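Components:
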Amino acid sequence: MRKIAIANQRPGVGKTTTAINLAASFAFLGKRVLLVDADPQGGLTKSLLHDGYKGRTLYDVLQGISGVDDAAVPAEPRGFYIIPSSSELQGLEVELRSQKGWERRFKDAFKKLEGFDILLIDSPPTLSTMTVNSFVAANSVLIPLQCDYFALEGLPQLLKTIKLIKSSLNPMLEIEGFVITMYDRRFRFAPNIVSEIKKYFDEKVFETTIPRSVRFLESPVLGKPLLSFAPDSKGARRYVDLAREMMGKWEAV
Amino acid sequence: MRKIAIANQRPGVGKTTTAINLAASFAFLGKRVLLVDADPQGGLTKSLLHDGYKGRTLYDVLQGISGVDDAAVPAEPRGFYIIPSSSELQGLEVELRSQKGWERRFKDAFKKLEGFDILLIDSPPTLSTMTVNSFVAANSVLIPLQCDYFALEGLPQLLKTIKLIKSSLNPMLEIEGFVITMYDRRFRFAPNIVSEIKKYFDEKVFETTIPRSVRFLESPVLGKPLLSFAPDSKGARRYVDLAREMMGKWEAV
Ligand SMILES: Nc1ncnc2c1ncn2[C@@H]1O[C@H](COP(=O)(O)OP(=O)(O)OP(=O)(O)O)[C@@H](O)[C@H]1O
Ligand SMILES: Nc1ncnc2c1ncn2[C@@H]1O[C@H](COP(=O)(O)OP(=O)(O)OP(=O)(O)O)[C@@H](O)[C@H]1O
Ligand SMILES: [Mg+2]
Ligand SMILES: [Mg+2]
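Structure:
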């Protein structure tokens, strides 16, 4: 099973958007996908389940109150499954840090995961408890980079954290790659920023870039990934391309 | 002197962009403006001063090492002045909280401020030390709201914090108003979001909305506000309109 944490402590770079639309894309390509919202702010949960969701959440799973199967909700008919976030995760973040082995809580809770090909974990814009937990539970990290002047901001700390987890708690942990998001063709410095990113990370940068598109703004309003309501849009197709590019790399190994 | 804190604990809603371009607009309209970067992440400082700035910062001012006049740097010839941020502010945030009267540090440091008509304070996406400090130092709060599905997210806590400061530490504190940012005409739910915002805050919502424009992405690359390199652009003109609308409200009182 591929277990991919989507992370970047810089806010608003497209983690949640990537998590949602990659989940939909992998499902479209025939994979069984479980999408976990590990952000206490719950942007992903609010984007797909809207308010008033009353079922089990990641909090219940991490506390051992609920199994993964009870908490997993279908995001849409014949699509992918989600484990929603909850604001209770905020308190848990603080509480966990004082417990021995707190970094493994996620991994242990998801150990017996069956019936899925891909686990995608959306993390908060921090390098604290939830994100560290997702790095311990995952076997790779996908890093979205927003195509603007501050694209590379914060990366040294992020990569250092990944290296730390790899050497101490999770030797399996790899970098899945970097995906450039919100590429705006009318931004005249976009090509410069892309080459700067490639200068540092070369083969780890996916060829597929995600274009800036107003359809992503519609997505949380409609409560659906782009593939559901705008399958021919550039945004939808690029995420399918990204999913294919990721699968291509897996086959090549 | 108008002292305006620009705040919203939601990240990426346009606080820094508004701080920079309002400063330039007020200066263009003849006001003497001091722009303070109170965000330890220093996005404003990096956008206008680029890397390698070696002078005095807000940290030095708050520690009493430097006066405001020594730390204030001209953002551009005959424009406005900036007090840059510094990563040392991160440590100060933690340190301050354990000191008696920590919320007044900012206010005290800027008490004898002369020679300016407008003080603009850019705050971090948090409701912690630096932001509380800016609320105590300021006499009003300008709240940018990003025109997307989550526009109203976090507002209850923000307004509660403002109310708390007003009733305890700063009876002068008012809400300057709400400014809608990143309005994208091609986003078909934009009008719905605007009316939702107006439903809650009506006369406090500025008529002027800031359009989504790729020129704002160029701004930190060029190290200048839009008025400097794209004075005829919609983005530049809307910020001047906003400045005029704010000044109009001041005259009306
Ligand atoms: N390709 C795109 N084109 C246009 N808007 C986009 C695109 N990708 C994401 N967005 C928008 O940018 C904002 C931030 O995206 P998103 O929430 O996915 O980032 P994030 O990294 O998860 O943020 P956070 O760090 O707060 O969790 C959202 O309003 C989203 O709709
Ligand atoms: N009107 C606009 N059109 C297009 N892009 C914009 C606009 N306003 C801001 N941006 C871009 O959106 C991003 C976030 O803006 P900004 O940094 O001003 O927000 P912020 O609230 O200060 O963020 P933070 O909470 O991280 O401090 C930046 O990349 C900026 O260039
Ligand atoms: Mg997110
Ligand atoms: Mg900012």
